[in-house]
Amino acid sequence: MQALFLVVYINKRHLASDFTRYSMSKDIHDSRILILDFGSQYTQLIARRVREIGVYCELWAWDVTEEQIREFNPQGIILSGGPESTTLENSPRAPEYVFNAGVPVLGICYGMQTMAAQLGGSVHSSDKKEFGYAQVEKVGSCALFDAIEDHITDGGNGILDVWMSHGDKVMDIPADFTTTAKTSTCPHAAMSNEEKRFYGVQFHPEVTHTHQGLRLLERFAIDICGCEKLWTPAKIIDDAIERIKETVGDDEVILGLSGGVDSSVVAMLIHRAIGAKLTCVFVDNGLLRLNEGQQVMDMFGNKFGLNIVKVEAEEQFLNDLAGKSDPEDKRKAIGHTFINVFDEQAKKLKNAKWLAQGTIYPDVIESAASATGKAHVIKSHHNVGGLPDDMKMGLVEPLRELFKDEVRKIGLELGLPYDMLYRHPFPGPGLGVRVLGEIKKEYCDLLRRADAIFIEELHNAELYHKVSQAFTVFLPVKSVGVMGDARKYDWVVSLRCVETIDFMTARWSHLPYEFLGVVSNRIINEIDGISRVVYDISGKPPATIEWE
């Protein structure tokens, strides 16, 4: 249940208060790791793994200043992997202060290479690149690897099953380092300086393919850096509730509730903190899934007792979308219409001084990257828009330091149902980007029913939670079909189902032919207006997961 949820930029001139550190109290931040991002697709995964261990961490761009690092005061620093080559003159480098801060440092892949290059070693491009599964053999002793191995060689050395992704390799380690692991093609697959507590690994401990990766990260964060496990769902909830109370006081708060994961968890947190002083605005834009509006009202209004204002705005959205077929135009129109509808409701709540949002940590990272010019826009983010300048409200973002998996865990602690929290992602513009071309009510109604059948059959076949995302797309083309003795000429829909770890890349799901046949037959037989069902077998890349 994730219709368009308002996550907007507010003109900072009108913010009532700086809410940067709102959601978590200082004590659960006391143990902290700093991760410097050199551009790896796995960097956010490093942060998620460290959080999973129970240690707070933040992800910053590699070119931070000494002053910023000092102010953050980490107990350890991790240098991520990256696509660049340290053999190039202007490739990214870690700030020199990283190696003078007196805290442990772990370099991963490119992070190990830049550590070696900056501390007196050498890195060369390799003729034999290593991508994918590999085994590294431990040599010597190392606090990071001690008593962690997957296999033992005949000679008694430990073997680790790992995931490699590198073209360059360290040829000469710095003078005060020792080699702690090797492969047949990489003589220095890991290195360490035990006195300074500097460690480098050429593989990726953050990915699940590295079987002992989580243990290695835990060894670094807990045993080597001395961090405490303060970052737990229960402590995060308690602290967030206390922060909300301290920040908003007796003021009222307004929230755009969609029924999606982020807005739902925000609603439950704030409701626990201030009760009836929270007003949720649920906008039915006509672009929701089948029966979604009623499900939101039943769950949050009837079951949990939240104060919800439902706005029936289907006609307004469809009118504003009329004649628009370009995906970006549709996204912007949906966003602007939502803001206008929400603004109209907000003005009716004279005592509301705070706007709550479901901003999560990846949104913060993405916005920061866009602001610094280090990321390119592939699609406009459906959670980013703008509010009228005359809306003078403070901003409440209790989830802005959390990854999506952390938000889900908190939701479970708050009593939200598993099937809602672990429902497949649904885009903010809803069916607006799953109906290709111009949006019409007829198309949305057909798509809603077809999608409901697809999802129902995935549940029936116990496949739903084995795939990452599944949905149906309405194609604005007609195809000839036969129903009985009659010819029919109706619309086409496409089924889309993918499997992914991070949604950065994805493979199409190899669903059983028999299953696809059942879904296709049901859609064509039960829905008058659809004559053909196709299955999308495009991976990401080159295709994106959503069609628009």
TrEMBL record:
Domain GMPS ATP-PPase: 231-423
Keyword terms, alphabetized: ATP-binding, Glutamine amidotransferase, GMP biosynthesis, Ligase, Nucleotide-binding, Purine biosynthesis
GO molecular function: ATP binding; GMP synthase activity
GO cellular-component term (any): cytosol
PROSITE patterns given in the database record: GATASE_TYPE_1, GMPS_ATP_PPASE
InterPro entries, per database record: Class_I_gatase-like, GATASE, GMP_synth_C, GMP_synth_GATase, GMP_synthase, GMPS_ATP_PPase_dom, NAD/GMP_synthase, Rossmann-like_a/b/a_fold
Keyword rRNA-binding found: no
EC number(s) on file: 6.3.5.2
Coiled-coil boundaries: none
Involved pathway(s): Purine metabolism; GMP biosynthesis; GMP from XMP (L-Gln route): step 1/1
Keyword Transmembrane helix in record: no
The protein, known as: GMP synthase (glutamine-hydrolyzing)
